[in-house]
TrEMBL record:
Keyword annotations of the record: DNA-binding
Protein name (database record): TetR/AcrR family transcriptional regulator C-terminal domain-containing protein
Origin: domain of life: Bacteria
Positions of the DNA-binding region: 25-44
Species classification: Bacteria, Bacillati, Bacillota, Clostridia, Lachnospirales
PROSITE patterns: HTH_TETR_2
All residue ranges annotated as the HTH tetR-type domain in the record: 2-62
Source organism (scientific name): Blautia segnis
One Pfam family hit: TetR_N
A GO molecular-function descriptor: DNA binding
Length: 192
């Protein structure tokens, strides 16, 4: 992404931290970026296309920068931290006309983060594919449900502390569930 486009996206996120989505104008962006309107329109058709691009780039960066997860707690806390970093902006997107688009990419992020954890933890195990997919979906839905609850409650509680508390409460359950997904040697021999 070129420097000007990056500056426009960064400015959009800054403004989204300060005001609701529907209050952000092209003029706000060009004034803060010190570019002209033609420059904005060279890169983006309008504010909605800027919002979509910004959400996609954010989701891709969160996925790309995730590293490897050594525990389910680590991946859940990682998502909580990423959401907390943009708390007001995410609340404004959640309450905007771009809510569905935002949720689509939030869901994509959650799925990739949970998949990474499960793949890392089970790379040396023989797993039943349908059970693994069920496990990934379960944890992704749980994680997204927590984030949606946080957003629906105006991000009024400490998401990271709440996730840590839940992880302590359910400690070990992820490992037990993965063990239930393993395919026994007898099942492998029966398919050969």
């Amino acid at each position: 992404m070129n420097r000007t486009k990056h500056a426009i996206v960064a400015t959009f996120w800054q403004l989204l931290e300060e005001k609701t989505y529907n209050k952000i104008t092209v003029q706000d962006i060009v004034d803060r970026c010190h570019v002209n309107r033609n420059t904005f329109y060279y890169h983006f058709q309008d504010i909605p296309s800027l919002a979509e691009w910004s959400v996609e780039i954010w989701a891709d960066e969160v996925i790309k920068n995730r590293g490897s997860f050594d525990s389910l707690t680590h991946c859940i806390i990682y998502m909580a931290e990423e959401c907390t970093k943009r708390k007001k902006a995410l609340l404004h997107l959640f309450r905007s006309a771009k809510k569905e688009y935002f949720l689509k990419y939030l869901n994509k992020m959650g799925y990739h983060v949970i998949c990474t954890y499960v793949e890392n933890r089970t790379e040396n195990l023989s797993l039943a594919e349908n059970k693994t997919e069920s496990l990934v979906r379960y944890y992704k839905c749980t994680l997204m449900g927590i984030i949606l609850d946080w957003l629906e409650n105006d991000a009024s509680y400490d998401l990271i502390a709440f996730c840590q508390e839940l992880c302590e409460l359910f400690s070990g359950s992820g490992e037990r569930a993965m063990l239930k997904c393993t395919v026994s040697k007898d099942e492998i021999d029966a398919t050969c």
